[in-house]
Specification:
- The chain is of the alpha+beta class.
- It folds into 2 domains: 41 residues, Winged helix-like DNA-binding domain superfamily/Winged helix DNA-binding domain (Arc Repressor Mutant, subunit A), CATH 1.10.10; 82 residues, Lrp/AsnC effector binding domain/regulation of amino acid metabolism (RAM) domain (Alpha-Beta Plaits), CATH 3.30.70.920.
- The chain is built from 5 helices and 4 strands, in the order H-H-H-E-H-E-E-H-E.
- Strand 2 and strand 3 form a beta hairpin.
């Protein structure tokens, strides 16, 4: 889908303030409200805007620990990836699953209420995932930049 400068201006304003009403986005982007609405609908239909979501601060809900686990899988089994990913999807504390080319095959982003809870998750749910050849844990200390936007 081709986007033009008007679409980019609208997208920049939407990224800056996702909760702003269409009329306000339009004013900031220098277009009419009707034009802004049509462009947003076109961007949704074209798959550029995938939807709206609630962003929940899980730390405020009592989840204090975040760990990134990197896995190398035993690739001698042709179903290793599929079976590992299917099992990982079933772990409720797994927030994100990513696959890679290279030394690391899969990364899981996991949250826990505290270190004792993480230890329990790791021993009872993570180490029981199929086809693990090697794993590395990285504990999050702080997030310096968390931005899903692209330069527009």
């Amino acid at each position: 889908m081709q986007i033009n400068d008007t679409d980019r201006r609208i997208l920049r304003q939407l990224l800056a303030d996702p909760e702003a009403p269409t009329a306000e986005l339009a004013a900031r982007a220098g277009v009419t409200a009707a034009t802004c609405w049509r462009r947003l609908e076109k961007l949704r239909a074209g798959g550029v805007l995938k939807g709206e979501q609630a962003v929940i601060d899980w730390r405020k809900l009592g989840w204090e620990v975040e760990v990134s686990l990197r896995f190398t899988l035993d690739k001698t089994n042709p179903r290793a990836f599929d079976e590992f990913l299917a099992a990982a999807r079933e772990v409720p504390e797994v927030l994100e699953i990513q696959t890679f080319l290279g030394q690391t095959d899969v990364r899981l982003n996991i949250i826990a209420r505290d270190m004792l809870h993480y230890h329990d998750i790791y021993r009872s749910r993570i180490l029981t995932l199929p086809h693990i050849a090697d794993t590395e844990a990285l504990m999050l200390i702080s997030t310096i930049k968390d931005h899903s936007g692209v330069p527009l």
